Amino acid sequence: MYQLSRLLHDYHRDLYNHLEEHEIGPSLYAAPWFLTMFASQFPLGFVSRVFDMLFLQGSEAIFKVALSLLGSHKPLILQHENLETIVDFIKSTLPNLGLVQMEKTISQVFEMDIAKQLQAYEVEYHVLQDELIDSSLNDNQRLDKLEKANSSLRKQNFDLLEELQVANGKIQNLEATVELLLTNEGKLKQSILTLEQERATLLKAVEEMQKKLGDTDGKPLLSRQEHMDGD
């Protein structure tokens, strides 16, 4: 309910002020909406669409639907000037949605993006609750709570220190592995260079041998030719 109140404050300030002026909180009209997913007061066709959005978007869809309904009926709500008529309108008249209004509400819900606001409001609510609890404690209770919190923080720090030491050990092992890989890489490069030099030497030797073989094959041919000429 706190989150819906904050949404009204941020998106429809005039409506929020009007409801606050008459001391009307969301729990007076929106509790049945949230508890029954709008099934207790709204048409079945609309409720089925709400369930579709709930499956698609999660609980955020409920806040979107409530905000859209209140916003679209804001001019009519502002016309009422006392608690009874306002609450009666929201509970009785507002749920009687026509097809056009229903489709407009569904379209608005798909266009809204209030995820970050809902998260922020949830944090605010827990902070306010903690402050409220602290204000009701005496000095000894506050001291006991602080000591427990301090003990919990010390344990968390100790656990984090252990995790840090483990992480540092892993980093050192990785650095040693990298250094070994770099050394092996250097050796492999040197081996490749040596093999390339040996290959070049062998290719040169093969070329020289082929050249010598070519010269040797030519000499007998010349000798036979000279012999034929002599005959």
Low-pLDDT stretches: 221-228
Mean pLDDT: 84
CA distance, first residue to last residue: 126 Å
Q: Would you tell me the structural class of the helices and strands? A: mainly alpha
How many helical stretches?
10
What about the largest sheet? none
Percent helix range: over 70%
Q: Which of globular, elongated, flat, extended, rod-shaped describes the shape?
A: elongated
Order of helices and strands: HHHHHHHHHH
Overall strand count: 0
Oligomer: single chain
SS strand fraction: under 5%
Report the radius of gyration as a whole number of Å. Answer: 43 Å
Can you lay out the helices and strands and say which pair or pack?
Layout: H1 2-11, H2 13-21, H3 31-36, H4 44-57, H5 60-72, H6 74-78, H7 83-93, H8 99-111, H9 115-135, H10 139-230
Polypeptide structure, described:
The chain is mostly helical and 231 residues long. The protein is 84% helix and 0% strand. It contains ten helices and no strands. Helix 1 packs across helix 9 and helix 5 (60-72) crosses helix 8.
Note the main attributes of this structure.
84% helix; 231 residues; elongated; mainly alpha; single chain
Provide a concise account of the structure shown.
The chain is mainly alpha-helical. The chain has ten helices and no strands.
